[in-house]
């Protein structure tokens, strides 16, 4: 005895499908009642009033903002000539002071040479020769001889997209000059100068803002570190840490770094130092020994490196 056919098998159109609750929930998450209420509010008189009133308010706000920007631009442009004039005046004054400083430096060098000639004539041969050797060793006398020139320069400058000014991607740091100078001393240098500034036992290499100061005198890129010393100085410097570091920095950051041997270098004398001497205090200390004030010693022998390297890469 066979079972009677099911209704779905007799008539496929008679099948009944139950609704998928989860699919309907994600397809229409908003309840129909809330949806109808939102539609009525959107088409109601209050919404139309907001639309009608909102447009003039928006236009007024935009007009006020545009007016403020226009006023600010006009004020900036009005003040630009005065700022440009002040900047040009400062630049002119700086150049005038630099020219005056160069003139006085040249005059001081001439007077120093004249004093040296008069002194040598008064002292005699052996004493004058010994004094010249001491001056050369301490950096207070001009020296001449074969040596090495280390050249460092900032990376090529790119134009800033916002300000339009030229900016360097990578710059030589004061600590780079310190490391190079210290390694030249260690390699046997007898005299060192940076961009014509002679290094002595009391010379400092520091940074003030974006400027590098050598003994409180500004130097700019490219930097030439000149050193007079024995013939082996080039090889010993090349094997040092400073040369290896600067070659790596030049490869990765685009700086310029080079070392070459030069015959017959002439390094200028350093300015006369302003020495201070310690003096006993008038009143003794509680322990009975006099109190000695601080002092700044004068330059000692040659080959003494400048201030210790600090910071850097």
Automatic annotation (TrEMBL):
Regions annotated as coiled coil: 94-121
Keywords: Coiled coil, Membrane, Transmembrane, Transmembrane helix
Region (Disordered): 270-313
Biased composition (Low complexity): 280-313
Keyword Methyltransferase: no
Protein name: Uncharacterized conserved protein YlxW, UPF0749 family
Cited InterPro entries: DUF881
Keyword DNA-binding: no
Upper lineage: Bacteria, Bacillati, Actinomycetota, Actinomycetes, Micromonosporales
GO terms for cellular component: plasma membrane
Species of the source: Micromonospora humi
């Amino acid at each position: 005895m066979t079972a009677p056919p099911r209704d779905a098998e007799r008539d496929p159109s008679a099948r009944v499908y139950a609704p998928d609750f989860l699919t309907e929930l994600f397809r229409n998450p908003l309840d129909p009642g809330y949806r109808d209420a939102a539609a009525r509010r959107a088409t109601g008189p209050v919404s139309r009033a907001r639309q009608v009133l909102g447009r003039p308010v928006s236009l007024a706000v935009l007009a006020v903002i545009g007016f403020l920007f226009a006023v600010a631009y006009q004020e900036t442009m009005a003040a630009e000539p005065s700022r440009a004039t002040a900047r040009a005046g400062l630049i002119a004054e700086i150049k005038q002071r630099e020219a005056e400083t160069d003139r006085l430096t040249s005059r001081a060098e001439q007077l120093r040479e004249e004093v040296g000639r008069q002194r040598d004539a008064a002292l005699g041969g052996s004493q004058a020769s010994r004094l010249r050797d001491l001056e050369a060793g301490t950096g207070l006398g001009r020296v001449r001889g074969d040596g090495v020139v280390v050249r460092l320069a900032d990376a090529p400058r790119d134009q800033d997209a916002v300000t339009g000014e030229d900016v360097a991607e990578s710059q030589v740091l004061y600590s780079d000059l310190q490391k190079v100078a210290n390694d030249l001393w260690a390699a046997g240098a007898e005299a060192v100068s940076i961009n014509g500034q002679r290094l002595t036992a009391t010379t400092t290499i520091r940074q003030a803002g974006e400027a590098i100061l050598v003994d409180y005198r500004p130097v700019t890129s490219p930097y030439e570190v000149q050193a007079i010393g024995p013939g082996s100085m080039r090889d010993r410097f090349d094997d040092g840490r400073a040369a290896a570091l600067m070659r790596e920095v030049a490869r990765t950051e685009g700086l310029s770094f080079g070392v070459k041997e030069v015959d017959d270098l002439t390094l200028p004398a350093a300015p006369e130092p302003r020495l201070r001497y310690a003096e006993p205090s008038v009143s003794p200390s509680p322990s009975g020994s006099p109190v000695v004030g601080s002092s700044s010693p004068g330059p000692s022998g040659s080959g003494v490196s400048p201030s210790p390297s600090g910071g850097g890469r």
